[in-house]
Amino acid sequence: MKRRIKASKLKGTGMAVFIAVAITALVLIFISVYRVVKIYQISRYTDVKVDGTVKTRSSKTSNRLVEIYQKSAPVDVVTGDANASPRSVSLVFSGLSSDETMNAKILKMVKARHINAAFAVPAIQARGNSGFIKKIKKSGCTVISGGLNEEEQNAKAVKTLCSHLYKSHEILGGETGGKVQTLYVPGMKGDIVTLKAAAAGGYNQMVLPADEDIVTRSTFKNKSEAAAYVQQLTGQRIVIISLDSKAEPVNQEPTVESAKPAIDKQSDLDDKKSKVEKTVTLDQTVKWVLDALNDQKVEMDPLDKVKVQHAADYIGANLKDDADQAVVYRSALTNEKRVALCVRGLSSRAQYDRLAKLLKRYKAGCAFFVTSATNRQLKKQIHADGYALENAGETGMASRDVQKMYQEVVGGAQSLQKMGANPKAYLVYDPQCLPQIRAACFAVGQIPVEPQNPKNMTKGAFYLYDAQDAADIKALLKQARRGGYQVESVGALIDASGTVPELTKAELNKRRRANAGKRAVYHTEVPTTERALAFTFNNLGNTAVNLDVANRLKSHGAKGTFFVTFDEMRTEGDTLEQLMAMGNEIGLDFQSNSTYTEDYDGMARYLHDCLTYMKWRYNKKPKVIMLSADYAKNKGMLEAVHAYHMKAVGASRSMITSGTAKTTDADLPKIFDQLKAVRFTRGGLEYFNLDYYQNDKDKRDGEKTVTGDMVDKAIGQYVDAIAFVSPTTNQIEDGSRYKIKTVSELFDLKKVYKLSPKKQHAVTLHKDVLGKMNSSKKQFAYMKDHYVGSNFVVNDKKLPGFTNREIKQLDKVGRLTDDKVLFLTFDDWGTDQSINKILYVLKKHHVKATFFVLTQHVDENPNLLRAIAADGHEIACHSNTHVPLSDANRDYSRYDSLTGKEQQAMRKDLVTSYNKLNRYVGDVKVGGRKALSLNFRPPTLAVSKAGLYQVFDVGFRYAVSGNVSTNDYKRTDLNTYLNVMQNGSPSDEDDFKVTNGSVIVMHMTENAKYTAQMLDEMIPKWQSEGYRFERVDQAVDEFTPRRERERN
Predict the structure, then answer these.
(1) pLDDT per residue over 772-817, tens digit each?
(2) Please, what sign has the CA dihedral across residues 718, 723, 725, 729?
(3) Where do the segments described as Disordered lie (predicted)?
């Protein structure tokens, strides 16, 4: 009995298990069938390629959608209200993470906070996430459309865009069990084409957030940054949080590739970009934002409570001269032999028939640009014949009023759409209205075209002719046939474009042969005497920094050169256009990879692709390319740069130094203290890395940046410091300022020079001027007649080697004449900060002077030496290393003659010094007078017979000391300095008085800080007293020694 009961129980249990298994199987079968049906629903519309991209299949539906599009009003725009109060936020999550656990975790966080968020899900992602879609709806959140595959912003054809949106609407309706009326697709523009396409796809409204309200996993590094972002939110905002990292600001840049796509090399330069570890997870970012919204008590609105604008109001509100600008097509980038024919001004059927006959004979396509006023029947005939109708506007008249320009473009487009045409392009009639045309075209979704009619036919060229110019059109068609070019409509060519024409091996070799092995000179400064320098920048990855720096430059009346890579010029178009609009220059920044190799061929391809793209996209031809010091050693790369007629430049210095990535504004004073030895120069190329400071990484457009502050302070500390400050007004005199110009402007200036020094024979080791004289008497007579002494080198203690008899015959005064002439002289060497002030004052008062140059450091700043000469001043020698002509004891009370070894060392020093001067200014003549003279000033004014012998024996003509030794390097007070220069210094001090023929000894060093201001005051006074000013070499040949010392 027990066995039967047990068996009965087992039998019942087995039946239950069987039933459970059967039910489970049926459920699984149902789910599988459901998924197959859903997959089939999508597969009817799409093909998924092996690379993961999606291609929609064409169908009759697409043509019907275009008809609906043409008749549809644009959908409304959900955009928020910047002026609303109190502030509120509507959250939209864009896309889904590939990690299902992450999606669930984020939904749980949203649900726990009772937030009615919207999830913008692409139809392709919804296909495999049906369960999660249901969970979204069950949680109280909303599902909106993320398009078909989040790629709609790349659709070139209206038909494709409408088809994508329609299919996404159908699929998501099936997945959610209801109609999805709201659309958000990352990167989609709010132009009229997009809004009408959304309507054709079945949507009622489209979400268009502000660019700054798009958050990705990498937006914030920590909770504090998320809180700071929320803190600055005002009004009613839509915050997009990307779950699949596809959300991004609108980018109107066309997709363009090089003919040979390459794999980029990974840079190993620590200072190229500061590296920040990106370890933030998606759920961390979401939690930070949600916590900040909660902590700051920000009101949370569901998306259906956010302000909606009619499309016309939205477009009108955003339509300004500085609004988003459509890209101008002057040609198309293609690697195929195709050109576009555009015809305008069609006025009669007879004109058209004549052209149609030509087109048919040559099997050519054509785009006829027509206005609303063009005969409707004629337009229908053109359309029926298969030729493209494009937009010449409503009236064919451009306007500088952007609202009128919008009406012109949209009116022309709509008149064509009503008759079944699908215009893509608007013809630019008046380039002076280009900003307004581009803004209007962006809003309307038209492509502004500006054909260039190149004489030599090239791939992708646009040609424009008046309808009456049938002969010219025929000639073009013949030329195309001979060259093997296909002639087609501008719209068809634009649709097929996107590849930079390849530089063939034959073209590469032809250019190389024509260049004949010449190499570009690598410049770390521009050889110029102009009061100007350049600020250079690269790494344009941060728009906020780029524009902040440009605005800082503009506030100082300055312009910069921004060097961009091929990648940056294709992705940062809006930024580049803003930079150029402010007068800045765009140069090229070389970036090597598998195609752009570090040799002639790689550099030639890089330059070809960059220059082709820049001409096409921006109608600009860069003139300079930035190379690293290592690249500058590569002969093949420099050869390619020269072959493309470009300048190769590096940097005088990097103003942003290694190890300072974490710099804040508060750190800048310390940074500048570390850089206090920096001195800017004429022709200098001062380099700033725009993407180095970590504290700038998350700055938003319009915010001040550390890099911007760095540029500002550099101008104040290093540029303004070079200028002359008036002693009377205490203000900088504008004429003395150094201008910050673009690199190309520096190269284009008339004051750029090229060194071509001839070997000099005037001063040499074996000149032996005195040695060839046959007696010591003649030697002394020569020294006596060519030594201009001073009033404190007068006895045997300071004139070693001379006999008392000889000392009596030497000059002990230092004046050159008894006429009312003064000789301003400057010793040693300095920086732009000291010498520019002197040069400015001399030019201001029309005075020429003599500069006795210590040449040890002139190689570091040849532009400054050249500038002195170019201003018409005399360049004379003061030795290379400031070696005195006699040896002094410790307290300078007695001097001894030089030893034989010292004499030989001095001889070499003198020749070295003169050779340097000859190299940089030996060819300079101003007003017929050579800048470089054979005059010499003894260092410290100390002399000996042996020292002077060497000076004259190597070839110097005169050794000139002077009667007024100002000791300006010791001056601590301008007023005292002015007093002694006007009234003289007593014998117990400096013992001088400025009088007729005075040779005034000053210095061009920075420690002689009052010299320029003193001269600015005294030169007019001396001129009012009847004095004139001359260079030493203008009077020295008339010099006669004055044996008796003159006291003040």
Answers:
(1) 998 999 999 999 999 999 988 999 999 999 999 999 999 999 999 9
(2) negative
(3) 250-270
Residue 792 in any domain: the answer is yes
pLDDT > 70? residue 84: yes
Q: Is residue 749's pLDDT more than 90? A: no
CB 531 within 8 A of CB 836: yes
End-to-end CA distance of the chain: 148
* Cross-strand partners of 214: 240
Residues 6+ apart with CB under 8 A from 430: 398, 437
Return the structure tokens found at 777. Answer: 């008497």
**Co-location of 29 and 58 in the same domain:** no
* Residue 269 CB burial class (10 angstroms; 0-12, 13-18, ≥19): exposed
Q: Which of 27-36, 40-49, 379-388 comes out lowest in average pLDDT?
A: 40-49
In a domain, 327, yes or no: no
Run of H or E residues at 493? helix 490-495
pLDDT score recorded for residue 1047: 61
Q: Same domain, yes or no, for 357 and 314?
A: no
Q: What is the CATH number of the domain that holds 848?
A: 3.20.20.370
Which residue from 784, 832, 791, 830 is spatially nearest to 810, judged by alpha carbons?
784
Highest mean pLDDT among 161-170, 186-195, 360-369: 360-369
37 and 58 in a common domain = no
The angle at the Cα of 550, spanning 545 to 553, to the nearest 5 degrees, equals 125
pLDDT in tens, 547-603: 999 999 999 999 999 999 999 999 899 999 999 999 999 999 999 998 899 999 999
Question: Do 39 and 60 fall within a single domain?
Answer: no
Q: What is the pTM for the complete model shown?
A: 0.82
**In terms of domains, do 222 and 186 share one?**
yes
- Host domain of residue 15: 7-43
CA distances from 846 to 3, 528, 871 (A): 131, 22, 10
Question: Does residue 9 or residue 229 have the better pLDDT?
Answer: 229
Q: Count of CB atoms within 10 A of residue 854's CB? A: 22
**pLDDT per position as a tens digit, 226-256:** 999 999 999 999 999 999 876 555 555 677 7
- For 845, phi then psi, to 5°, come to -105, 10
Backbone angles phi, psi at 584, to 5 degrees: -80, 160
Structure tokens at 993: 């008085």
Question: Do 84 and 307 meet the contact criterion of CB atoms below 8 Å apart?
Answer: yes
The rounded Cα 1035 to chain-centroid distance in angstroms is 52
pLDDT at 744 > cutoff 60: yes
Longest dimension (CA), the chain: 157
Question: Quick check: 3 pLDDT over 70?
Answer: no
Q: Has residue 761 been placed in a domain?
A: no
Distances (CA, A) of 905 to 609, 769, 802, 922: 56, 18, 21, 24
Q: Classify the C-alpha dihedral 963-969-970-974 as positive or negative.
A: positive
Q: How far apart are CA 1038 and CA 997, in angstroms?
A: 12
Structural domain contains residue 14 = yes
pLDDT, residue 60, reads 54
Q: Answer yes or no: are the C-beta atoms of 849 and 826 closer than 8 Å.
A: yes
Give the Cα separation of 439 and 831 in Å (integer): 49
Q: What is the pLDDT of residues 688-729, one digit of tens each?
A: 999 999 999 878 888 999 999 999 999 999 999 999 999 999
Same domain, 880 and 999: yes
- Residue 263 above 70 pLDDT? no
491 and 611 share one domain: no
- What is the spatial distance between Cα 279 and Cα 946, in angstroms, rounded to a whole number? 75
- Number of domain units in the chain: 5
Q: Residue 919: pLDDT band by 50, 70, 90 thresholds?
A: very high
Measure the CA dihedral 189/192/194/198, to 10°: 130
Pairwise CA distance, residues 914 & 908, whole Å: 10
Q: What is the dihedral of CA 449, 450, 453, 459, to 10 degrees?
A: -40
Q: Are residues 368 and 423 in the same domain?
A: yes
